[in-house]
Amino acid sequence: MLKQGRASRRPTNRAGTVIIDGKEHTVLLRDLSETGARLRLAGSGTLPDRFKLVAPLEKVNAECVVVWRRGVDCGVRFE
Questions:
Q1: Looking at per-residue confidence, does 1 or 43 come out higher?
Q2: Three-class SS of 26-63
Q3: Mean pLDDT in residue range 42-59
C-alpha cells in the first residue's frame, strides 16, 4: 500500500471569504497548498463541515471539507 505525502504548504496571511447559505464570512488563510488550506476564523462561531472558500489574491475558488479543527483554526481539503 502506498502512502500519500502531504502537499507542500506555503504560509500566507491573506483574507478569504467563506460562503455559507449565501452569506459571506471573513476568514484568514494561514497556509495554503494545492490540496487545501489552514483557516483562522475572524470573530466567533464555527464553520460547517462543508462550504465554499473564495480568496482572489490567492487564486482560490473551491468547495471545501473540514478535516480538522483546533480552537479558531481549521484545516480544509479542496474538493
A1: 43
A2: EEEEEEECCCEEEEEECCCCCCCCEEEEEEHHHCEEEE
A3: 91
**Amino acid (one-letter) located at 65:** V
Rounded Cα gap, residues 79 and 71, in angstroms: 23
Average pLDDT of every residue of the chain = 90
Regarding the domain with residue range 11-78, which homologous superfamily does it belong to in the CATH classification? predicted glycosyltransferase like domains (2.40.10.220)
What's the CA gap between 44 and 59, in Å, rounded? Answer: 26
Domain boundaries, given as residue ranges, for the chain: 11-78
Contact 32, 58 (CB under 8 A): yes
Q: Are 74 and 64 in contact (CB under 8 A)?
A: no
- Residue 5 has a pLDDT of 56
